[in-house]
Amino acid sequence: MTSYFAGIVDFIGVHPHYALIAIFLLASSEAIPVIGTVVPGSTLIIGICALATGAHVNPWPLLGAAIAGAIFGDGLSFWLGHRYHQEILLHWPLIRYPQFIHRSEAFIKTHGAVSVFLARFIAVLRAFVPLVAGILGMSSRQFYAVNILSALAWAPVHVFPGVLLGMALSFAHLSPGRLAILLIVGLIAVLAAGQALRSYFNRHPFPARLPDIAA
Q1: Is 215 domain-assigned?
Q2: How many CA atoms lie within 13 A of 57 on its CB side?
Q3: Which of 87, 126, 131, 206 has its CA 20 to 30 A from that of 183?
């Protein structure tokens, strides 16, 4: 098993672009409605960055991929809301999550454009606020200014802990295989905890109703 996981680290070292692609897609998924509440993008980014650091991949391209992915994901969600307005809420799968749409609408009306920045760091809301901002007609100039600033703040918080973790484990003179095993076991533990939290909130849902955005 150790040799198998060592192969993963070696593969990332030989093909670092795969780590960059994975980080870009995971960062983008954080802002995609529904997907952002299911895929543990933040946790996986930290793990991939640690593995990539163990494979001696330069951390700056990892940071760039996370920033680009975060900007793209929010921008895509905002465009969908701006293009299709409240009609998009009447289709699957969004019609199944009216409570999150309602919370996001209230959050935007309370904090204005700053909500885009704040939501980036709040689970669940970050997957819906950009879409709802587009539906509510937020200025594109305002949105993208805050979107870029929030991505610049969000990406280092997720990339550098993974880089530091990878460096720390490397300094402990662990073999690549043992390094990968520790990281994957840690990821499994975090993912299990996240699944338990999602199960709890599914059993104790927020009051659900479709927002009257057109009013």
Answers
A1: no
A2: 31
A3: 126
